[in-house]
Amino acid sequence: MGSVSIPTEQWAAVVEKTGGPVVYKKIPVRLPGPDEVLINIKYSGVCHTDLHAMMGDWPIPTKLPLVGGHEGAGVVVARGELVKDVEIGEHAGIKWLNGSCLNCSYCNQADEPLCAKALLSGYTVDGSFQQYAIAKAAHVAHIPRECDLEAVAPILCAGITVYKGLKESAAKPGQHLAIVGAGGGLGSIAIQYAKAMGLSVIAIDGGSEKRDMCLKLGATSYVDFQTSKDLVADVRACTHDGLGPHAAIVVAVQEKPFQQATQYVRARGTVVCMGLPAHAKISAPVFDTVLRMINIKGSYVGNRADTAEALEFYRRGLIKAPFKTVGLSELNEVYKLMMDGKIAGRYVVDTSK
After folding, report:
1. Residue 218 class from Cβ within 10 Å (0-12 exposed, 13-18 middle, 19+ buried)?
2. Which of 109, 227, 240, 322 has the fewest beta carbons closer than 10 A?
3. Domains, the chain, ordered by start
4. Which residues pair with 131 in a beta bridge?
5. Would the pLDDT of 200 be above 80?
6. Which cofactors does this protein require (predicted)?
7. pLDDT tens profile 296-352
8. Residue pair 321/345 in contact by the 8 Å Cβ criterion
């Protein structure tokens, strides 16, 4: 195992019981297995999924105790003896998909996120809210050397996820796309990917701060759900022909926006479900869905090719994730802001603080 000097202990934010809080404490540093690498995490984005994991909101159980986080950007400091294509000193990222079997029908068709043996960073295995994190070498994100590790961290989940969702929407350049939850961590990045892909973006969220940010990032129009008296009509009115957007990607954390999206997309429109509000359901009138040929689909996270493509958009300067950086020891405060819906953009934690 090639390596550099590695400490035996590190600082981490640990969930010791479902419902939290996270405990900032020292834990041991684990060394990588034969097919794994150890990454010295410098920065990690904070995703709403991390809050769901702490609160036990989803039907898939988490490990406990748990080190959350799955947007970790850092430097490879050790690798197992079977690893040949990840170098010591390389910039690399910990993603939501930490590992998969690489040999099932899904993995063989580039659908490795659907692998039944998938390892999930910050959920079923410890993630990036620590100074040294383990990942399967085959699944690490290869971060171009010229990319700033602090700024690129949110791309490792938020960026890859929305890029995948945009591909799943099948929206074409020049068409209208609604982004629901556009002022949040995923939505703010989705606006930029959509603009870079030639789409006209209708941003949907609440409040003047998020409006200003969405328009600055490239949205062509903004609908405020807090003040709109008829959201469906207002969204349709944002399109040049009044028929509604060709597609909508929904990254909201409440149930109602999913139902609304099926109403304002145009005939043959596609609704891509991406947000994961706890215990939520999606429903649409069968008559309307059939007659207007509405397509409702889910989009999970990107595969390895999607990861490389999403990072290339960023490397070329087309994506700038709006973020604020705080110390890892302040993670509980970030979760409180998240629960109160007071975050515009993304928070990034510095693991050295």
Report:
1. middle
2. 240
3. 9-155+322-350 (3.90.180.10), 159-298 (3.40.50.720)
4. none
5. yes
6. Zn(2+)
7. 999 999 999 999 999 999 999 999 887 889 999 999 999 998 888 777 777 899 999
8. yes
